[in-house]
Amino acid sequence: MTIAEPRPPSPTSTPAPEAAAVVPPELTVAGDAPLARQWEDRPGLPGFLTTVDHKRIGVRYIVTAFIFLLVGGVEALFMRAQLARPGGSVLGPDTYNQLMTMHGTTMVFLFNTPVFAGFGNYLVPLQIGARDMAFPRLNALSYWIYVLSGVFLYGSLAMRQVPDGGWFAYTPLTSSAYSPGKGMDFWAIGVTFLGISTTVGAINFIVTIMRMRAPGMSLNRMPIFCWGVLSMAGMIVFAVPSITLAGLLLESDRAFGMHLFDPARGGNPVLYQHLFWFWGHPEVYILFIPATGIVSTVIPTFAGRRIAAYPLVVAALVATAFISFGLWVHHMFATGTPLLVASFFSAASMIVAIPSGVQIFAWITTVWLAKRVRYEPPMLFALGFIVIFVIGGMTGVMVAVVPFDQQVTDTYFVVAHFHYVLIGGTVFPAFAGFHFWFPKITGRMLNPRLGRLSFWLMFVGTNLTIFPMHILGLEGMPRRVYTYQDGLGWNVWNMLSSIGALILAAGVVVAGFDFWWAWRRGRPAPADPWGGDSLEWGVPSPPPAYNVAAFPVVSDLHPMWQARDEGRLMPAVVSVAGEDLVEPHGEHHRTLTTSAIDASSVDVSSMPGPSHLPLVLAVGVLVLCVALISRNAMVGIAGGVLTAVSLIRWHDEGGEPVE
Amino acid sequence: MTAPPETPPTPEAVSAAPGAPGAPGAPGATSPRIDLLPAAGEVPPPRAARSGRPLGWWGTWCVIATEGMIFALLLFVWFYLRANTNPWPPAGVPRPELVRSGTRTVILLTSSIPLHLGERALSRGDLRRFRIWLAITFTQGVLFIVGHAMEYVTLWPTFTPRSHAYGSIFYTLTGLHALHLIVGLGVLAFLFVQSLRRRYSAAHHVPVTCGVMYWHFVDVVWAVVFSSLYLSERLR
What is the rounded CA–CA span in Å between residue B231 and residue A66? Predict the structure, then answer.
């Protein structure tokens, strides 16, 4: 591969795509202005630990998630190495089970969900023209809990008690009788712990999007990505309690000797599956919907035109969010569900393909009607997403048919289906997002040649890894096995799949190198390298700590394009009720809140600044988890006191000053 | 919890935008209190007004939705086990008694009334009455918890969470509700102390609004739990 010679940053080497918008001056102030000083974090470690800046938190989310992607990917490579040949001896059965469990847990809980939380954190306030999230400290808390729960789950490695009952942790396999040791305790407590992070993050998104949009940004002028995050957050609020409960009740059975899932004492193992999948199925769409939000942002930008059928795309997002709650039993057809129930869930599983189809046709139409399409790396990943996701979607309709599902349940066909959906539906959009917003986040341009190389490696690698699994599944290879016998006709397909995994990994490594190199040495990025339509492209790259000095007034779905086409600056609110927002007087962080539906009336609101409490509270909850796993009452009391004290301090500090 | 100020902005004259080239662009007559930069005559200016309920109110509703889901799912567990287990309840479990549990239920459900009156007193700026009503609700909550503990003491010799699935879900569901109520008592105590420190006023009391919403929610949950675990079990 060829690597572009690094050049010293200089404004003249900045690429100038057509109609690159300049930063509207009313959105920024000088670096030493009171507003800038008020919003900037303290330098060094104290600032790092106490920041509540949604941009720093968003970047942390994305970087941490990317690290977990690499970890989960290495786990997958080990499994593929073991399965490359029949009777492989790379891993023993126990190690294989542990890797399989941690691979699934890492990818779903620690990479996929958080990476979109990261994008949402970074982008939602910028796209809606707000200065921060509605509850900044809660935002920091949700990050700290995320990273600590990741540390907790991988702490099982240090204890040599790694979870090995599958990422779904079905009972009775995971009951204390069949999974002694602490491994599944780490899993059950860890996912419950992480659920706190996901839930408070979602609440923050809902309130931010509903109440802090720029004046004039009524719901029908909101960027599709924000619609995606809003739908995701709504689903999280109603779905995550179910995995929290599944984890808690499983742990109650294991640690306190309860019998909820123990048929010998009136419990029911199928009940666990209901609880798991009542979260698990919406979770697929919790991952997928913000991903489509990214695709719906990237495709119109590089097609240079509005997205086709914006209202239908938004309706499809919201409809998917609702329908996804009526699908969970299709994961359980093999448990012997009554015919009527199976028929209902089978039909619902086919219906959910309709809104997905609406979105796919909207993307195709957008590209179709474009005068000129720019095939930059973000666009390649978005188009690659469409191809892979359509294949995964089609096998999804196949397994929604009960007789077919009964035939392929627990075979590699199902593995192939959900890897197509998850890699195609979420990893490719995430990479489209990395490439699209990298210049905004870091102020540096990526190397497009490395981007293209990485895309083609990942695209070929994904298909070569996963497609043979369809055939293996149809030939009867069961999933979750650590090896297989020679002479079953599976050898070639397994070898191809393992080779594909290496190619896919190479693509991720190239991308990782590209990110690392560009972050340090990349050419400086202009405010708007791609000609984007939403407000984040109206502020410098990277954006200042306060995001916007004056609050833009929006009168179109594409405010940046409107300003460009009409050749004028964006109008912006500089003061409300005599309170100057650009040159503030007090110490409090101030921002605008607007009315929920039409964002027509505005109001000034205070928000808390940097605080150490989010980190302290997260550590307090971590100590409680450690107490649960070590069954140590003293540690539990310490954790409880730490948690309670920081909660009290939190609400005491957060109170509105009474004059 | 962050709390936006609730005072509606007072009308005043248009102030020139600082450093703005030219006059504030918005037609001053329609919205005298918002300055726009630069001149943007054709854009309808937003109104400066109370933009809605406080952010904390929105956040608390989301918390109630997700917590409500937890209880809804636990009730699903209850009914799922009840439908799939024979005999239900298992042998040796007495039928739930209604007199004492019913009395406790009445005590808890009525505790929302003084709390509501207290919030109204606070909106009038009457901190003293607010504290009195708060104390009454707090006492009712404590009475409920004490009754709850007494019931556990009575039931423990007959069955425990480790006896069978019925015991597991019975103690989990009622125990989780009791835990929520204890948190609610903590919230009330916090509000009481803060009101002694004069942290709330008629115009600024978003934490009180949120705490009161949470208490009402825990009350309503008990009504559903009582109906499912006691009344409906008795009426079978």
Answer: 52
